[in-house]
């Protein structure tokens, strides 16, 4: 017995399979294998097989289908327990061995939802009169790192978006030491870190 979104469902004896993978970011080089500089955990995927039975089987089926279609985040508790999962697949079949019920297979994926940066005008606090920033050599430019970023791609590639602000990779590493796992090692740049990447001219 297990529960999905509070609904009781029967899981086969070997009907819970968890997939835990990781993604590696790689970059091609002139010779040899690609250079890898980052690894991050992927969302856990849980595959379930079992039965929906009982006088309310049809209602359960319809509710699970509605959750899948609406992208509702649900909790699952069985051999494994997860509090925030999306239903990405839900297949059912009727069987003569199950009276008034269904065989099913369900795929759940761990949900992680980004918070909106939008603030409505009614909740935005007034900060009074603000001075406009002027474009000067002393105006710092910041960037928040993400998976797959390299200092070369950000600063030195032909179409590097931050090349015009004048910093070299060494400048970035010196000015943002906490953004790197190892001192002055560009390959250890961390994800989700706000770094000073140059000065606006």
Task: Characterize the structure shown.
The protein is mainly beta and 201 residues long. The protein folds into 2 domains: 2-110, Elongation Factor Tu (Ef-tu), domain 3; 139-200, Membrane-bound Lytic Murein Transglycosylase D, Chain A, CATH 3.10.350. The chain has helices at 57-70, 151-156, 169-175; strands spanning 2-4, 7-19, 22-27, 35-41, 45-52, 74-77, 81-93, 102-110, 139-144, 194-200. The strands form 3 sheets. The chain has a 6-stranded antiparallel beta barrel. β1 and β2 form a beta hairpin. It is elongated and about 75 Å long. 15% of the residues are buried. The model has no long low-confidence stretch (mean pLDDT 84).
Residue-averaged pLDDT: 84
Strand order of the largest sheet: 1-2-5-8-7-6
Number of helices in the DSSP assignment: 3
Distance between the termini: 64 Å
User: Structural class, from helix and strand content?
Assistant: mainly beta
Poorly predicted ranges: none
Question: Under the CATH scheme, which architecture of the largest domain would be assigned?
Answer: Beta Barrel
What level of helicity do the residues show?
10-25%
And the CATH topology of the largest domain?
Elongation Factor Tu (Ef-tu), domain 3
Domain unit count: 2
Shape: elongated
Radius of gyration of CA atoms, rounded to a whole number: 25 Å
Please indicate the percent range of residues in DSSP E strands (runs of 2 or more): 35-45%
Region (Disordered): 119-138
InterPro entries: Dit-like_N, LysM
Protein name: Dit-like phage tail protein N-terminal domain-containing protein
Domain Dit-like phage tail protein N-terminal: 16-120
């Amino acid at each position: 017995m297990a529960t999905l979104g509070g609904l009781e469902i029967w899981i086969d004896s070997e009907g819970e399979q968890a997939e835990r993978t990781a993604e590696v970011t790689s970059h091609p080089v002139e010779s040899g294998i690609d250079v890898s500089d980052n690894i991050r955990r992927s969302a856990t995927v849980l595959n379930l097989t079992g039965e929906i039975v009982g006088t309310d089987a049809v209602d359960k089926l319809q509710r699970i289908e509605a959750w899948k279609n609406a992208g509702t985040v649900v909790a699952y508790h069985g051999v494994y327990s997860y509090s925030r999962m999306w239903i990405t697949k839900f297949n059912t079949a009727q069987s003569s061995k199950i009276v008034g019920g269904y065989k099913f297979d369900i795929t759940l994926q761990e949900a992680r939802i980004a918070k909106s940066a939008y603030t409505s005008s009614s909740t935005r606090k007034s900060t009074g009169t603000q001075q406009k920033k002027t474009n000067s050599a002393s105006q710092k430019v910041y960037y928040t790192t993400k998976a797959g970023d390299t200092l070369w791609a950000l600063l030195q590639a032909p179409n590097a978006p931050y090349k015009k602000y004048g910093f070299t990779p060494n400048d970035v590493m010196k000015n943002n030491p906490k953004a790197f796992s190892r001192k002055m090692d560009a390959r250890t740049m961390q994800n989700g870190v706000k770094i000073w990447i140059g000065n606006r001219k």
